[in-house]
Structures are given as C-alpha cells and as structure tokens.
Amino acid sequence: MSVLFDDYPRGQAAYDEMVGPDGVRPALRSVAAELDRLGLEEVRSRAEYLSSVYIDQGVTFDIGGEERPFPLDIVPRVMQADEFAHVEAGSRQRVRAMEAFLDDIYTEGRCFTDGVIPRHVVASSPHFHRPVAGLITANGVRVHVAGIDLIRGDDGVYRVLEDNVRSPSGVSYVMTNRRAMNSALPEVAGKHRIRPVEDYPSELLKALRAAAPSGITEPTVVVLTPGVYNSAYFEHALLARMMGVELVEGRDLVAHGGRVSLRTTRGLRPVHVIYRRIDDEFLDPAVFRADSLLGCAGLLNAARAGNVTIANAVGNGVADDKLVYTYVPDLIRFYLGEEPILASVDTWRLEEPEAREEVLDRLDELVVKPVDGSGGKGIVIGPRASADELERLRRQILKDARGWIAQPVVQLSTVPTMIDGQLRPRHVDLRPFVVNGGSEGIYVLPGGLTRVALPEGELIVNSSQGGGSKDTWVLTGARARQSQKQARQAQRMASPVPLSDQVVDRVIRHQHEQQQQSGESSC
Amino acid sequence: MLSRIADALFWIGRYLERAEDTCRIVEVHLHQSLDDPTLDEVQAANDLFLLMGQPADEKPDVLAKLCYDEASPVSFLAALGSARESARRARETVSTEVWESINTTWLAVRGGRLQRMRPASMFKFVRERCAVISGLADSTMSHDEGWLFLTLGRSIERIDMTSRLLSTPSVTSNSQRAWDHVLSGCGAHHAFVQRYGALASDRDAAEFLMLDRLFPRSLIYTLNTAVESLAQLGPSGLRIRPDDPAMRLLGAARASLEYLPPDEILRDLPDEMARLQVVCTQATQAISERYFEGSAAAEWVGGAW
Lengths: 523, 305
Description:
Chain B: Residues 1-292 form the DUF403 domain. Chain B: This is DUF403 domain-containing protein. Chain A has 523 residues and is of the alpha+beta class. Chain A has 19 helices and 26 strands. In chain A, the strands form eight sheets. A five-stranded mixed sheet of chain A has the order 15-7-6-22-23. In chain A, strands 9-8-13-14 form a four-stranded parallel sheet. In chain A, strand 10 and strand 11 (259-264) form a beta hairpin. With 305 residues, chain B is mainly α. Chain B has two domains: 1-141, no CATH class; 143-298, no CATH class. Chain B has helices at residues 3-35, 41-51, 62-68, 76-89, 96-109, 113-116, 119-140, 145-171, 178-185, 189-196, 202-211, 219-233, 245-258, 269-292. Chain A binds chain B through residues 55-58, 228, 233, 237-238, 240-241, 246-249, 251-252, 254, 262-266, 285-286, 290, 292-293, 297, and chain B through 1-6, 85, 88-89, 91-93, 96, 99-100, 103-104, 107, 145, 233, 291-292, 294-300, 302-303.
C-alpha cells in the first residue's frame, strides 16, 4: 500500500501520529499517498532543497554566538480539525485562567485567602516581582502572547507540559516553515485544505495596539530585542518586519519624566507599546539587575505611570513556575468555574514530605526538573542518569525542595522524520501560540510549532539541544472538504486582507476628520 | 528612523562599495604588473598598500591582504563580512531580497571559498554580486530616509576610493598605460573612449574621471549624489547656507574641483586627492555626530546608595 511507510517501525511504545499498528492512520492516508506518489528519491531531494533554502534566507538560531540553520523536516505533522479545536479551546481556557491568576496575585490575592494556592508558593517564586504589585495594564491584559507546550503520551492524549507566558519564542519558524514547505512540497500541500498561519503578525499587532495606554489613538509599537547575539534574534527581526514596526535595542530607548522615547535621526519619538523579548531581570537596570545594558533605565517607572505598556507584563514568570503549574487545574476551577479542558502531567511537589520521600526513593525512574528552568536546562531524566548525577540531584533536592518538581517519564509521541534519507520515528511536542487582545478576543494560531528531537530516542526537543522542527498542518473540517467549491467562494468573499481592521479604522478616522473640518468651515 | 539603523545602513553602503572598489583596484594592479615588465613588483605592491593605508611589507602578498584574508581590515572579504553583519542588525529595514543577496554573497565567499577561485573569476564574482545588491536596493527599497543613508554611505566611499585610485598613475607615472588602467579600474574605459576617442591625453582621462557630469563613478557625479542625499535628509527651504557641516564640507570640495583651472588638474592631483580623502573622513564624522550619535550606548550607573 505504501512504499515510503512500509518498513517504518510500528507498534512501538510511543504513540505515532501518522502510522498506527495497522499502517498509516486513516485520516492521514491522503497525505501519505501524496508523499508516496513522489517516491522516496524525490522526497529526499526536496528535503535537501529545504535545508538550502533556510541557509540562503538566513533562517537561523544562535547557539553560543554561532549562527546555525534551523533544521526543518520534510514530513509535516498533520492535525485534524476536531483535534485542533480541542487544543485551541484548552489553550484559550488556560490563558484566561493565567490572566485572572496574575491579576489576582499582584492585586487582591483572593486565591490566597480562599486557600486555592499557598501564598508562599507564589511569594517564593524567583519571578514574583514586587515592583509591579498593583500595576494594572491599560486593557487588563498581561499575557499578550503565550506559548503552551503540549505533549502526547502513549495514550494519544494531549497534556500540558509547561506554560510559557513570559516571552515564548518559535512563532517565526511556524511562518517560515509554512512558506518553505509550500515551495518544497506544493503537490502535497495543494491537495489539502490547510489553515493559514500568515495572520499571526497582524493579530499580534492588533493585540499590541489594543494594549496601548488609554488616550493614545495612533500608538507607536516597537519590538525590543537584546541584540543580534540573542538566540532568537531572527525571530525578533522577522516579527518586527512583518508587523511593520521598529526593532529596537535597549540603547535605542530613553526614559525621561515617566515616558519612553526612541532615539531617531530626527530626535526623540515617543513609544507607547513595547513588545519586549528581554527577560524581566534585564529590562530595567534601575529596578532589576543594575549591570544590565540590554534594557533601559526608567522603563518600569514609565509603565507604572501608565505611559507605556510592556508586553508581556513584568512578573508573568510566576505563572511559568513549575510548582505553580501543579495548581493550575485548581486555578481554572476557581477563577473560571470550569473543568480543565487540557490534561496535565502528574507532578510531585517536592515540598510536601511524603511526596519528597517517594520521589527520592524512585529518582532513577522519574524526570526531575528545576521549577524556573526553560529550554530543557537542568532536567534530569532518571532512567538515563548516572549514579553520580542522581546523587548530586538528591543532595540538591534536600537542600532546596522548592526548586524542583518530579514527573513520570512521558513517552512523547512520534512522527515520521527524514533521518539519513530514511523515514524514522522521532519524538515531537507542540507549542500552539495564543495572542490575547483583551476585548479584541483571543487568537490561537492554527497549528503551532512542532519541535522534533533529531537524535534517536531523545526526549528533550528543545532547539538549543539539537532539535529541529516540522510544519504543522491543521486541516479544515470535513464539511468544508465536502463543499470545497462553496468554501472557496466564501473565502474569496471574506478575503483575509491583513490589517483590514486598521484600514477600516483609518477610513473612519479620516471621515471623522473631514467632518470636523467641514464643521469648522461652516461656522 | 532609528539612529542605530541609519548607522547600519550607511555602513552597508560603505562596505559594499569598498568591497567593489578594492576589487577593481587590485585588478588594475595585477594587470599593470603583467603589462609592464620593468615594474618592480615589490615596490608596486607596497605602493598599493600605502594607498590603502597599510604598512609596507618585505614580501607583499597583494591577493591575500586585499582580497581574501579575513583578518586583514582592508581585504574585500572583510568588507563583505562587515556589510553582512550590518545588514543582520538592520534586517527588518533592508528589503528581504537585499538581505538575501547580501547573505548568499557572504556564504559564497567565506571560509576560504574566495581563495579557491581563480583571481579573474573572483574579481568578476565580487563585482557582479555588488552590482546585484545595489541594483536590488535601488529597485526593492523605498527611496526613503534609509535608502538615502545607504546612498550617502556608498557615495562617500566611492569618492574616497576613486580619489585613491586617481593617485596611482602619479605613483607609477613611468608606466605608459597607467591611465588606461585607472579608467578600467573605475569601469570607465568604455565610456571614456566613446566620449574622447582612443587618442585622448592623460589630462582628458583625469578630467573625465573627476569632472564628467554624466558618468556615475566620476568624482563630481558622486559628490553631487552625496550632497543631494544630505539635502533631502536635512530640513528643506533653508534661507541661508545649509546647517549641515557634512554638506558644507562636501559642497566646498565639489566647488573646488569644479572650478579648478584646466591646466592645473594634473599638477596638483595627488595633493588634491589627499585633501578629498580628508574631506570624506570629516564628512563621515559630521554625519555620525548629527544622525547616529543617539546610537551610542548609554550606561546606567546604579548600585549602592
């Protein structure tokens, strides 16, 4: 039936998204059939084309100051419409709960008085920043962009691995991956109705403009980057370019009198919304680390004065804390009165004596993670660790129980991946991106970033640890497929012109100005 | 426009032009040493180094030092690398196509790839890539402030390099075909012969390269471009003189070239060209004070109180 997938390993411990025990899963047969039609040789040569495209375009990320192309795999990860609808609803719910939680802990603290989460869990988080207590943003949004890491265990159920509500990265690769895949596999992409990802920059810009301080009708939005040596610099530049806003470094900004301005060739220009991709600690040397040259002194003061919006808000890191993660299902019930849509991974809180005891007994079969780590740093996978490493870990846990959590080893799901010219199962995760525009609504990017761990059996998919990525295709619903013609017509009518809302805005304002002018002249 | 970005664009312009012109200068030098059997090669190479502001060497290796040695600050490989680094910093401002062509150029020359090409194809490759990039910049970027800074950088570098090239025939004035080489070094040989015929004198050649109003690499044409870019960048409708020191410097240099008595053109050529190089340095200084100063890093002095 299928040449490409014939000798592909089946019935392994991990759930494979494309090939089940009885061959290619029914929903994905058409994708497999199209790939088959091309043949292995052709697919290999397309894969080579993909990597050369990325080198020419400079689609890279930096490891230790060295630019490397980001490996993109030729086989897409395909999600059905209903499958993604579930992820989408769950992500939305989680962001709403996070917003409520962050707002609560920096103002009233109802969750503490009602006993949902102990106060010391929040107060002891290294990312809980008292300087922003009581700071309320212009449109009430703190999580402007979230990237929620999801994994699928051997039962095929999506589980949240961690929440990223500080400054999640990777969305640029979603957009470049799609463009590259469309040119590498036009035959396959063209046969399927894949939900587009190009709306992301305009949705982000809309959300950022909506977050502007009140009274500013034409806000200046900037993207703040740590500079070219940051591993995600490519992404910062791409987002700035696609949104049509300035990409600035800390030294381009100057704060004075509770306002922030840009140094331009024509003097200083006020800034209203800063989409920052710098960590809290480096953002404002006057409040946080005094030796940081990346930020701008006085930024936080300006934000407190309500003259500039920092997106994402300062202090969001509390919600990323992996100890707080264990309370999120309760927080969802408490704030939203709903049951969590997305499942979580079972987690032991090492602060609790019984849990700690159990975990210390079973260190060699669990995954232990630092609560404030990101990018796979500091994670110890029990079954793979040496006795020395486990011993060191045991001492660290006993010294600082608050700093660690433990989880069972989850077999991440696999997707066929081109390795040395053959398709082989490799572990993947998924990071859907959520943009919260406040009253503009919450937008979930169809699909998200699928990261793939390229070494065999590797479970850590982070790009800084030698990971690659895949294009994530979300197929449109069955009804749309049935009446493709109608759907196409409907789409043509509601053509997604980027920034259409802004254009409408501008037209309305223009009319308004004209009316005012004519009003004056008649006086 | 951000000061930092303006700065980056200005230097992209300069570095690309420097790469191209260095390439032309070395090409002229090699042809010259082939054409003239009496030439002292070491002396000629050292003269060339002097021209590029480099110390003399006992065993000068022109190709390494000026072409493919990444560690040498005057090699065109280094210039291409710097242009690429500046472009990376201004990546959201230069058009995608310009960035891609700068990036592919850099990828094609780095890591010793340039060294492996034959010199003739290396020169051709670099010249053509530079032409592709500036062509793309002209046709895919809005001719706004950013483009003006790019043009300004390119023009100032071109004035600087052309003036250096014009100093070569006097250095090796014993060579008969010196001016022919200089003309080809500026890519002007064809245009010159078309205009003056094959029997033209040295003075005609000097005049053409300095004062021709229609040839885009002549000094006067380039000075005009630089002054016009500055005029567009600054405030318009000024009543008295321009308030921009860079514009005054370049304008004055243009006037002194333009109104030079015809028989003095060749006499003072080296001095005149040296003065022009000083003007380029001063103008760059003035431009960076006026437009880029904001990009200087501000330091926060915090700590214990």
